Amino acid sequence: MRRTLTIVILVAGVTALLEAQRPSTDWTQWRGPNRDGLIPSFTPPREWPQQLVRKWKVEVGLGYATPIVVGNRVYLFSRQGENEVMSALDADSGKVLWQTGYPAVFTMHSAARPHGQGPKSTPVFSNGRLYSIGMTGVVTAFNAADGKQIWQKPGSPLVPTYTSHAFSPLITGGMVVFHVGGHNKGALTAYDVNTGDVKWAWGGDGPGFGPGYGSPVVADFGGTRQIVTITQSRLVGVDAATGALLWDRPFESSNETNSGTPIVYGQTVIASGNSGPTIALSVARRNNQWAAEQVWENADIPMKLTNGVIVRDALFTLATRNSGQYVSVDAKTGKTLWMSEGRQAGNAAISTAGDVIFSLEDDGELVVLRSSQTAFEPVRRYKVADSDTWAQPVISGNRIFVKDVSSLTLWTLN
After folding, report:
1. How many domains does the chain have?
2. 231 and 215 in contact (C-beta within 8 Å)?
3. Which of 74, 110, 187, 370 is deepest in the core (most CB within 10 A)?
């Protein structure tokens, strides 16, 4: 009996160890676990199928927020009627496990009506909680187990003109960071994850809004953890612990709609404005002062709503020229390696796993590409939605979660 018990304990211990060592397939925030478009734990099939398998499709409400996938649960932030709603679904069946909503009535600017009423910001999951910002700037913390609201901060009647709040929050040092805008003079604001108390705020872009559109990244430069983001008129790095401005560079773009997420490549930041040139900055501390010095500029690859990925020291993205051209650029020098033919897509949500690149185009087509230093090499094209796809897809193991205008679909690779 004792020997049997010992064997059971050993087997249980080994199983637990293997589970702990198994790579995670979770997708916990905007652009994935590291906010860089890199897909964790994906093994490509030996041969790509002609078609994907649709497991389920459910109506979940309007919006462009990326689904959050943790284990066997999918969390989604969307609009249902006049409410903004956080939902939890069973990943196997699409069954709704819980929903929590709050009123979010507002009138969109006439120029923005084609974009819809959102929400457009992707929540962030951390330590059993979800944090979101709605179209009017309402900040909410939810319990991921049952959807109960933990704390909430009011929004503002002043919202960005074009897409309202599309800034996706991040977690750092026990804080959740938002670009709340409006009543807080466009400030980056860090809230205590447990209480919602403001820990710091940076409002250096002056009165009114920061962009409300682009999202930040967290990076370590010279041993200092920094939040790097595009504001209304600048590209900035602030101390993640205190919110103090460390460095900034002018970063103008048309219509004040900076919508990109900076890309961190070593000690370099790569960024592109609204159809402006793409630049790379080297961030370093010299003579006791921080500086961001330009390494290269490439005017041939303007990006607007598409964010790129780094694959084998090359930046892969969709440029706005010629109605959308895929492009690969040497991330060290900024030299264009190749460009595809034009008219590919208006925008695309791009992610990568090793040498495999996924690009969900805005017309509902998912393009699978082979990473190449010399040419555009699509492998397969899959139709995965019947309406516009502005949200990032989530690729988790062999599961592909696609949010279109109002529904969420699970596709699988067998």
Report:
1. 1
2. no
3. 74
